[in-house]
């Protein structure tokens, strides 16, 4: 059963404990609220301000598990706090570990401070959980994918639009990296894991995947510099730095360019161009 009073009080306390700068929002000059405004929390949680306000007033319909997960992420809750929120809402908490999609507050705080840099948080299978605005401008909204296509490794072997975002000379290495990484994950998670299911789907769909998979390579890694092909800016050579959260099997990928280079100048233009348009077939518009 939902504990409406407990849920409302917990949401209010968590909202009031957060400051705009804690979640990557501007403070503004005439701010009187001690913490975040309800409207700001609603925006962070991708829900309506009216619905969120009703929850804090012990009203409204019973929130779904998906809704509670979104609120937990928007309020930057820890795993213990997330589980508490689920129980207050009358739901069983999601699993932790490799299958969890709840980004840790620490990783979110770092991501929130990278507004001027392409960056993303991904799972061990390359499923993008969140991107910075410049990350979306660089590669498009990667969080929109569903099912197996959420994994960039799966898209690499099944979707030509994904390959079109990278320099052709790097395609062979990318194929080896994705197959090698998936093999490591399957071994780590077991034959009943989602990773094993992706491997089976790819083996049935892609001749190239079958070839590189059957090579049994392990430990193949990307070059430090990744070469992106942007539909408007052309080639960008970006260095990828990775910060790991081993407790959640998540990684924060941050893309930077060497100052003074042409790629560095193009990065400055990304914020002006904004997100890439998406065509009906899912490819970035040219």
Tell me the series of helices and strands, N- to C-terminal.
HHHHHHEEHHHHHHEEEH
Estimate what percentage of residues fall within beta strands: 5-15%
Strands across the major sheet, in which order?
2-1-5-4-3
CATH class of the largest domain: Alpha Beta
**Measured distance between first and last alpha carbons:** 51 Å
Kindly give the count of domains.
2
Question: At the third CATH level, what is the topology name of the largest domain?
Answer: Beta-Lactamase
Cα Rg:
21 Å
Apparent shape: globular
Mean pLDDT: 91
CATH architecture of the largest domain: 2-Layer Sandwich
Beta strand count:
5
Low-confidence stretches: 278-286
Question: What's the helix count?
Answer: 13
Structural class designation: alpha+beta
Largest sheet: 5 strands, antiparallel
- Measured as a percent range, the helix fraction is 40-55%
């Amino acid at each position: 059963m939902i504990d409406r009073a407990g849920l409302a009080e917990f949401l209010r306390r968590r909202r009031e404990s957060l400051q705009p700068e804690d979640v990557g929002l501007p403070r503004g000059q005439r701010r009187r609220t001690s913490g975040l405004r309800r409207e700001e929390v609603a925006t962070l949680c991708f829900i309506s301000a009216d619905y969120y306000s009703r929850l804090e007033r012990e009203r409204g319909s019973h929130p779904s598990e998906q809704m509670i997960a979104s609120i937990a992420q928007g309020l930057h809750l820890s795993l213990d706090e997330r589980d508490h929120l689920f129980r207050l809402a009358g739901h069983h908490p999601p699993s932790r570990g490799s299958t969890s999609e709840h980004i840790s507050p620490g990783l979110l705080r770092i991501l929130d401070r990278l507004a001027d840099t392409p960056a993303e948080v991904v799972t061990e299978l390359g499923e993008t959980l969140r991107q910075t605005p410049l990350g979306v401008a660089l590669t498009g909204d990667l969080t929109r994918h569903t099912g197996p296509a959420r994994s960039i490794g799966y898209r690499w072997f099944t979707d030509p639009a994904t390959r079109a975002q990278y320099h052709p000379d790097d395609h062979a290495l990318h194929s080896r990296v994705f197959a090698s990484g998936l093999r490591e994950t399957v071994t780590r998670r077991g034959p009943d894991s989602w990773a094993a299911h992706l491997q089976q789907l790819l083996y049935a769909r892609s001749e190239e995947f079958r070839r590189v998979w059957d090579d049994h390579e392990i430990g193949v890694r990307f070059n430090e510099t990744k070469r992106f092909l942007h539909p408007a800016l052309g080639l960008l050579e970006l260095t990828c730095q990775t910060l790991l959260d081993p407790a959640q099997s998540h990684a924060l990928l941050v893309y930077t360019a060497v100052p003074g280079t042409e790629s560095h100048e193009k990065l400055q233009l990304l914020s002006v161009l904004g997100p890439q348009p998406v065509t009906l077939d899912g490819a970035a518009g040219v």
